[in-house]
Amino acid sequence: MFTATSVTARRTARLQFSSEKTRCTRLARLVVLTTLLWHFTTCPYSTVHADDSDGLTAELVFPLHGEHNHAPGIVECPNGDLLISWYRGSGERTADDVAVYGARQTVGQQQWSEPFLLADRRGFPDCNTAMMIDQHDQLWLFWPTILANSWESCLTNYRISTDYLKAGPPVWSEEGLILLKPDDFSPDGLRVLASIVDQFGPLLTQRLNEEVARVKERLGNKLYQRLGWQPRCKPTVLPSGRILLPLYTDTFSISIMAISDDQGETWFASKPLLGFGNIQPAVLRRDDGTLVAYMRDNGPMNRVLVSESGDEGLSWGPVVASELLNPGSGLDGVRLQDGRWVLVYNDTIDGRQSLAISLSNDQGKTWPWTRHLEKHTGGSYHYPAVIQSRDGKVHVVYSYFVEGGKSMKHVSLDPDWITQPIPQTEIER
User: Fold this and answer.
1) In what order do the strands lie in the sheet with 56-60?
2) Is 134 exposed, middle or buried (0-12, 13-18, 19+ CB in 10 A)?
3) Cα-atom radius of gyration of the chain, to the nearest Å?
C-alpha cells in the first residue's frame, strides 16, 4: 500500500512500481524464452523444431496423443498442399474403434490442420494407410479393414476423391475393394520354405519354427491365398501407365503386387515375392526398367530384403538380403527427380530408436550416404512414408512414439542434406 499523500509522491510511487513491474515482466519473458530455446534445441520430443541452417525442418503433426497413432501415408496435392493419413484408436487389429485419420499442411505453412476422419468401417479396425495422386489428379486412399481381429482376415479398401483441395476431409466420389485371385503358389512356396529351413534351421527361434509350421499348413488353402492382403507403402506408377500397389500378408509373411492396367478400374495379382519374412514392399524403378522391391525382414536375417522384376512387376526373382540393417520394421523409398534414390528405414537389428535416411547415386546398387532423422533411446520412430515434392524437397512422415504419447512427425529436407558431413552433435545423440 502506498502512503504518500501528495500527487508528486503518488506519481513517484507509480513510476517505481511500473519500473519494477517492467523488470519482472522482462525477467519472466527471458525465463520463458530461455526455456523454449532449450526445449527446441535439446529436447527430442518438441512439437516444433526451428529451421536448421543445413536444410532440414521438422514438426509434429499433432500434440502427443494418448491413443495408438500409426502407419502414415503422404501425398503432395496439385496446389502444393501436403496431405497425410494414418490410423488412430485404442490398439491395432484387436481394437474395433480404430479408424483412418488425416491432416493437411497448406502450402507455405509449417503448421498442420486439426486431424479429420478419412475412413471408418464402424465396428471393425481400419489400419495401414497409403495414398497417391493419379494422372487425372484424383486422390486415392488405400487401407485394410480387419474382419475378425486378425491380420489374416483383412480386406483392402480404396476411396477416390476429385474434391480434396479445400480445408477439411476430402469428399469421396467412389470406393471399393481390391480383391485378388493369385495363381496357386503352394508348390513354389513349399520349395522356397524348405530351402530357408535348410539354410537357417539352427538359427530359427521357437517362434519362427512355429511360424514355418503354420505357413506349411495354410499354403494350399485357397481362402488364405486370396484373403489377408493389405497395403503399407505407396503405389508405383510405371511409364506405361501400369499401377503397382504393393501388398503383403501376415498369413504367409510374403508380398505381392496388385496390378492395374486400366487406371484402377480393375486389379489382378502378380506372382508373389516368396521369401517368407519379406513384407511391406516399397518399389523403385531403374532406368533400364528393372523394378526393385525393398522389404521389411520378419525373419532371421535382420536385413532389408530385396527382390527384382524385369517384366513390369508380373513376376519377381529371389528374395535376398541387402547390407542394410532392419529390425523387423517398415521402410519406404522414392526415386528423386534427378535419378538418385532415397530409402528411409530403421538401421538396427533390435528396436526402432534409430531412423536412417540413405541416398544412392547408382540406383540402389550402393548406399554411400546415410544420416539420421532420429537417433535416441526412449522412443520408437518408424513406419516412414517418403515423397519428393515438385520444389525438390524430400518429405518424410513417420510414427513417433515416446513416453508422453504418440504422434506423426513430418520432416522436410533438401536431398543434399543427406550427403553433407555429419555434425558431431548428430554422432553423439
Assistant:
1) 48-49, 56-60, 405-413, 394-402, 379-388
2) middle
3) 25
pTM for this predicted structure: 0.88
CATH, range 72-178 = 2.40.128
Residue 212 CA from chain centroid, whole number: 28
Sheet with 278-285, strands from edge to edge, namely: 278-285, 291-297, 303-309, 320-325
pLDDT tens sequence across 186-236: 999 999 999 988 988 887 888 888 989 999 999 999 999 999 999 999 999
CA distance 37 to 302: 39
Scan for cell 491413443, then name that residue: 67
C-alpha cell at 322: 541387402
Domain borders along the chain are 1-42, 72-178
Q: Supply 324's cell numbers.
A: 542394410
d(CA 279, CA 296): 5
Question: pLDDT of 256-304, one tens digit each?
Answer: 999 999 999 999 999 999 999 999 999 999 999 999 999 999 988 999 9
Distance CA 177, CA 211 (A): 28
